[in-house]
Amino acid sequence: MQPSNGDPAPPERVAGGSAPGPTPPAGREPLRSEPADGAPTTPPLDATASAEPDGVRVLGDLTAESTGGAGLAALVADPLAGALGQVRPAARKRPKPGERRVQILQTLGSMLERPGAERITTAALAARLGVSEAALYRHFASKTQMFEALVEFIEQSVLAAIEPIARNEPDPARQVSGVVTALLEFAAANPGMARVMVGDALVLESERLVVRMSGFFDRIEAMLRTSLEAVPGDVATPSGADPAIRAAVLTAFAIGRLQRFARSGRAHSPTEHLETALRLFVA
């Protein structure tokens, strides 16, 4: 039907059947609820990056995932606020299952790293985490259980590093050096764990864990003894000494290095001049 003269023509319809909206006045941009293409973003921060030697496990590696960066990537655009050029902070995310437990252990480990640190209370630990003490006990039944988790981390990490050495290294003398080196490198990378290993952090917490840590070094000594029994008599130093005695001396040497490191405020690295020192035991 043709419009009569003087009547405005109906708007033309486009594909989809809907009529176009009103055209904004010249010189004025329409409001948009979505951000403009090419808006800058901030890459996530890697919370687990570490400069430690390859193969040395650190407590920070237990984190479930990186924390994510700040800036535009951590903000949520609001349709109205976006039109006004504003943004609002994203809602705080609840930790994933198991993530808070890891955070508790990492924070406890970092508190143990402080030189001259006294006995750590759950109140101080909760304050450092920014949570209540009750929140701690939702993940651990007691503080002793927290330290037990640290002991388990030490056992698993060190044994995972030294067992392949004892299994794959054909030279018994190199096995001995490798086991002691792996043990001391772990402590150097985890200063807080060194205090647990020598018992300083456990003596006021749990006698049972002190005994367990002592048993850990018994296992290290047994591995050293097995390797030393295969070392030819003309290679080991001193020649002809009983392998059990040499293993006990080497274990005491390693523990002494750990104690000096922990009690000197990390002034003396446990790996300092280690290669030269080990030649005194195994050439």
TrEMBL record:
Query: What keywords are annotated for this sequence in UniProt?
Result: Coiled coil, DNA-binding
Entry keyword Magnesium: no
Q: Which InterPro entries match?
A: Homeodomain-like_sf, HTH-type_TetR-like_transc_reg, HTH_TetR, SlmA-like_C, Tet_transcr_reg_TetR-rel_C_sf
Q: Does the keyword Coiled coil apply?
A: yes
Q: Which GO terms describe its molecular function?
A: DNA-binding transcription factor activity; transcription cis-regulatory region binding
Organism superkingdom: Bacteria
Q: Where is this region: Disordered?
A: 1-53
Q: Which residues are in the HTH tetR-type domain? A: 98-158
Identify the DNA-binding region of this protein by residue numbers.
Answer: 121-140
Q: Which named protein is this?
A: Nucleoid occlusion factor SlmA
Source species of the chain: Piscinibacter koreensis
Q: Which gene codes for it?
A: slmA
